[in-house]
Amino acid sequence: MKIRFDGLTKRFPNRNKEIKADVVAVDNFTFEIPDGKLIGLLGPSGCGKSTALNLICGLETPTSGKIYFDEDDVTDLPPENRGVGMVFQSYALYPHLTVRKNIMFPLENLKGKDKLTKAQMEEKVLEAAKVVQIEELLDRKPKEMSGGQQQRVAIARSLVKMPRVLLLDEPLSNLDARLRIQTREEIKRIQNTTGITTIFVTHDQEEAMSISDMIVVMKTGVVHQIGKPQEVYDNPIDLFVAKFLGTPPINVFDGEIKGGELYIGGEKVLGKDYVKDTADGEVTVGIRPEGFVLNDSLDGKEGVFSVDLKAIEVMGRDTSVVFEHANAEGRLRAIVRSDNNIDGKSDTIKFNLNSKKVYVFSKETEERLI
Amino acid sequence: MRKAGNIKAWLYLLPAILFLGVFMVYPLIDVLIYSFEEGYNSASQTSYGTGWFNYAYVLHDKYFLQAIKNTFIIVIITVPLSTGIALLISLGLNSIKKLRDLFQTIYFLPYVTNTLAVGLVFMIMFKKTPYTDGLVNMVIKLFGSGPIDFIDGPYWAKMFVMCFYTIWVVMPFKILILTSALASVDDVYYKAAKIDGTSSFRTFTRITLPMISPMIFYLVITGFIGAFKAYSDEVAIFGTNLNAAGMNTIVGYVYDMLYGNAGGYPSYASAAALILFAIVFTITVINLLISGKNSIN
């Protein structure tokens, strides 16, 4: 089922009573989420992504705007009539009930013609438990299980009523690093098996990039960019998106376009082929760590862009070059081939740039220029 | 090293052991001994012999039997009712937003008020005097019924006042405990239940109640113990001659046997006290067994 937002807005009164203006948690959402996909709602803490999730499931009502599930307007429907399943960050498993009873709980709420017999319920519970592979844990209490297992139970409970949309609020944040990778693959698998449109909220860009079919990057209630993870990574629409995606993060420099060529700190780094007809002036330049390329002899002695070498970190698969530059703040990082011949004792190192990994942004609006 | 540590540990414990020993363990043993000593005289510290005589006497004393009956009625009526009403009020308090603090304070006020002062107010409300029938009777009259003497009248009327009073006195503490128990239930469970379309009644019985059940059991157990030990509340309303009013309780009986008009019988008092202990102990064990079965763990 596809979900469509039309001017969806949610304002909260400011907690700080001295500030009269409302906090806009969700600002004029107008976009569509395609059917049967896994969507990552991504943004820094406090950007309104959880509010967006609460609006979709009906725990919050929007200040203005509409939400459509397929063609149905669900804006004013209570949560139970929307056909949504939700997995909470803390899982919200009822501690006094066994796993079986927890998963059965939503089914027992069904009334009238939807009412199920005990046997039908048992069957559905087993079915849901099988999808998340916890059949053998059905008689345990939540606290007798690991975080990852509890997570699965929570997913099973939200799946048992066959929702039209599955919502996951920071599904991996309570798990340790190893379990996190395992579980995110698990979520992808479950979504593939069930084909239910799934939206999950996260502040971890790696998490979102790795499993989403589509990511929605937002900040302070505003959607910045929507697209396939690779597309958004390769083609960030503005400086925020460019900075938010990618580990190690993108390197940001003060630059200038002069005579149709791109300069950083007096060095011409890219020419007319790259700049094309962008107007002259001061700009912000973002370069991905993999955008720095060594010369043919791999020693970093020649190149268009020279920086102050600070350290070489060997990562095995590749090498991380830590450097500083007068036109950038703090330490910067380039990722180069591990079979390089860089002299670690040298003070400077020179790079060439891969123009596809270099982005130019407006200094005022932070919007992408090139 | 171990031995030195042990001595040090005992040294730390010494003050507590001394106080507990002198003021709790010794009197307890003494009570046990008194209860088996026939015709003990506290002045001469002598007795005729030992045996179950004191227990037999107490259990055949009509005042004691009346006291047991009264105590049980008070316990059975007030503990469930006060807990239930307190739960309802707490639920109400928990669901309002405006003025919640104000109401919480109002509901808690009786707790810091002296029992005897509250008893006086109840007496003014219920007592029939040559000059007035009392506030409650004036209301009853509005509905066309005759005045009822709640303080010196029929047994059920007196028991009604007694239970009403007891419930009113114990309620604030229960409301306090239950409102904080309700507030401690994580909101996310209610959100989850809401998304699953759980009716509010089912949310209450299947989520709220189990989650606050440890606190409810705590209140029931302490409520039982407190109600079995009731005495001052009775005095506050009916005065010190509870036997004459027919409203004596077990603790009241123990007191009378020690210091009342019929006083000077520590052996009977001890036997009655131990019978009370046996009753409270049994009920508490039963309570704990039930709560153990139902607990979240």
Q: How would you summarize the topology of this molecule?
A:
The complex is a heterodimer of chains A (370) and B (297).
Chain A: E1 3-12, E2 23-29, E3 32-33, E4 38-42, H1 49-57, E5 64-69, E6 72-73, E7 84-87, H2 99-108, H3 118-131, H4 147-159, E8 165-169, H5 177-194, E9 197-202, H6 205-211, E10 214-219, E11 222-227, H7 229-234, H8 239-244, E12 251-258, E13 261-264, E14 267-270, H9 272-275, E15 281-287, E16 292-293, E17 305-314, E18 318-324, E19 332-337, E20 348-353, E21 358-362
Parallel strand pairs in A: 4-9, 4-10, 7-8, 8-9
Antiparallel strand pairs in A: 1-2, 1-3, 1-5, 5-6, 10-11, 12-13, 12-15, 13-14, 15-21, 16-20, 17-18, 17-20, 18-19
Chain B: H1 2-36, E1 37-38, E2 49-50, H2 53-60, H3 62-95, H4 100-108, H5 115-126, H6 135-142, H7 155-183, H8 187-195, H9 200-228, H10 232-238, H11 242-245, H12 250-259, H13 266-294
Antiparallel strand pairs in B: 1-2
* Main beta-sheet strand count, sense and barrel state of chain A: 6 strands, mixed
Strand content of chain B: under 5%
Which structural class fits the helix and strand makeup of chain A? Answer: alpha+beta
How many separate helices of chain A? 9
CATH class descriptor of the largest domain in chain B: Mainly Alpha
Question: How would you write the strand order of the largest sheet of chain B?
Answer: 1-2
CATH architecture of the largest domain in chain B: Orthogonal Bundle
Topology of chain A as a string of helices (H) and strands (E): EEEEHEEEHHHEHEHEEHHEEEHEEEEEEE
Helix proportion range of chain A: 10-25%
Name the strands of the widest sheet of chain A in spatial order: 7-8-9-4-10-11
Shape of chain B: globular
Poorly predicted segments of chain B: none
